[in-house]
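Notebook p. 47: complex prediction with zinc ion.
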Amino acid sequence: MKILPLLLLVGGTLCAGEIPLPLPNGSFETGLDSWKLDGPASVATIQADAAMLGVKGLCIQGDPVRFSLTSAAVPVTPGKTYKLNFWSSSTKALEQPQSNVDAKLVFRSADGKEIAAAPASIRKWPVAMVANTFFAEEYTMAGAAPEGAATLEVKLSSSGKGPVGPVNFDDFSLAELDGAPEPQIAEGGGHPVPPFDPQLLKTLEDEIKAAPYRGKQPPKIVIKLDDFGAAGSGVHARWKKVADYAAAKGIKVTFGIIGTRIQGDNIADFVAWTKQQHDSGRIEFWNHGFDHAERKDGNKRIMEFGGEPYEHQKQHMTDANTLAREKLGFPYVSFGAPFNATDENTVKVLAEDPDIKVWMYGDPRNPAGKKVLIRCGTVTLETPTLIPNYAAFIEGYAHNRGAEYFVLQGHPAGWGDDRWEQFTKIVEFLIAQKAEFVFASDFAGKS
Ligand SMILES: [Zn+2]
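Predicted complex, structure tokens below:
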């Protein structure tokens, strides 16, 4: 099962009682000013290619090497929680999952002695192992200033476990929290789109305008919409709305079908509609599992393709594929697991499967002979899951300009009017970016 470490969420999202703390040259726009390097100069270099915002970023690389890179010290108040955000990515993500770089919040007393961080008021930690990620991803770390603390520094250092990087860093920012509890975001209806700093949004939009693809091509976009199936004998209005909108905009979208939802005998309207959309070439229908089930085994969460034995997964893959051929009259080409949870049994099942050619959000290090489309955790339709969020999308997009593709996941069955408006805002932004909307299956046979 693949679970991303720490990372993700928040960032430009406004939390109650969050005060930005200036961190000198957190964006490396003035080189390594205000940062102190302990180690060879070759390990920490400033490069244009490493920039995510602005024109400069930090690249850490050495094979292997001992180093530390420490920010300027920022004054703190004991008892307060301090939150650090930064972005990182690696050009070697597929070869080596770990960067062997650790990030740490270091609190010190007035006489310079390091003191261990106290637990933060949010569920984040003061130490992180930085992964080599394919896309630029955001880390959020936090710790409370302990008794006697006077200052805080951000420190990157080698973990001592092997070759370091290459890993790019950019946009370090600090904030002081007032200890108000973290807002709980319930899944399902009613929750509003989280607020976002309008000034930051404007800055990000301007930055994108100034350098839309950082000298590369506009991205390919796969709109990956999950949990499609018959509603009664036909198609639910919210899915039809997506299809009509996509047709009106002239873009391709993809719908992931759950097998059990096309099993019934009285789904003639659904089948006719789906076949017609398939034939139109505007919608790709793909394998989103047979039953999308999950269960508990003690404390362990077992999902259809994450934790179930090989025989179970094999049967479910086969049954879902057979249903497509028999009910809809065409084979699936692409697969995306329920909950995006997969394991080594899924790799075996996929490797044996002749229908599936493309694996969305699969494991690029164990591709099972398929074209794996990697997930970008920060360029998303929905932040959090189920809630389309234009501002969060823009924040991730700005940091990931120049990427070849993005696979954007959504759940349109849960989109009421306010969420729909955010979805269309994202799509229309991408159209203006000259993005190419494609099927996952358009990547079949490409390495
Ligand atoms: Zn699903």
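Notes: The pocket of zinc ion is lined by residues 226-227, 288, 292, 338 (CB under 6 Å). Residues 310-328 form the longest helix (19 residues).
Next step: compare against the earlier run before touching the bench.
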